[in-house]
Amino acid sequence: MKPILGITMGDPSGNGPEISVKALMKPETYEVCRPLIVGDAKCMEAAIPTVKGAESMKINVIHDVKEAKFEPGIIDVYDLDVVDLSKRLYKKDRKKLAEIMLADVLDAAYKESMTMCGEAAFQYVKKVIELAMAGEVDATVTNALNKDHINMAGHHYSGHTEIYADYTHTAKYSMMLAHDELRVIHVSTHVSLRQACDLCKKERVLDVIRIANEGCKALGIKEPKIGVAGLNPHCGENGMFGREEIEEIQPAIDEALAEGINIPEKAPTPPDTVFSKALGGWYDIVVVMYHDQGHIPLKVKGFVYNKELKKWDAVAGVNVTLGLPIIRASVDHGTGEGHAGDGSANELSLVNAMDYAIRMANAKKEKEVEA
């Protein structure tokens, strides 16, 4: 049985609707999974005309997974009906309306739109988690949301990862980013750099090493090889540039090795070489100590800008939350509000996220059969 993927529509004023149309207009998608969008049917309907070649696509409005058709040419939308299209403003609309509306009136309308879209995006995530926890979908995939918008709507989270952790009651989890065979997993994410240094503690590093090991196995990698990045330049140079490697990271590595986890170098690797080694096949995944240490190499590899055509040739990469009781993969980009609604958004990251979710769902089913 092909896995059922619950795909959130993302922020209604962002690129999620058009990206979803582009991903689901590919007939081959339905050969490997059964996708459904969790969002607003009218937003998805409005996105179809913006996508070249999608004119024949139809929306199937559902309120129960059993109502889905899972057929090429039809986009099944689990409709939450929380968006008033007459109040939705794209960023590009604000520039046009500024010429004919008073500034305070436009500001109020734009704030109302952002709050509405933040509430909608949050509700899509909450619903897809509920569906996965109830076993109605095999995996979840998320389009981008706007952190400012969901906070304006009263949901004080720093991103998808924290929402998933809260609503699945998960204490130990981590963000993994992946593009092709390069994978990184984070000890800390959405905190200041100063706080990230304080969070580099043995128990957390050990937890993330364990999560990385199990996460690779969930992808079908039977004997994962794990690299562990240092925090400081040159891994602290024996304490001259910092002692975190000596006092926190190495003790975590030693304990992980004692548990049988494969860390080939048996020590932290300098951050300026660990990713080149990973690309060379030394590791299946790299444990990184903070947000940008992992995000920068992934996006250098996955985001390709064509300076001659002045457009992105590729916006690739996947964000996976490991340690959860359910599967969650996501696009590794933002809502693209500057161009949302014009049909130019690149769907590659969503396609990659769906591929990861399918791999993990299939590996989970195989493991259940073996058990």
Automatic annotation (TrEMBL):
Transmembrane is among the record's keywords: no
Keyword Kinase included in the entry's annotation: no
Superkingdom in the source lineage: Bacteria
EC number(s) given by UniProt: 1.1.1.262
Gene Ontology molecular functions: 4-hydroxythreonine-4-phosphate dehydrogenase activity; metal ion binding; NAD binding
Family, per entry: Belongs to the PdxA family. PdxA2 subfamily.
Stated name of the protein: 4-hydroxythreonine-4-phosphate dehydrogenase
Lineage: Bacteria, Bacillati, Bacillota, Clostridia, Lachnospirales
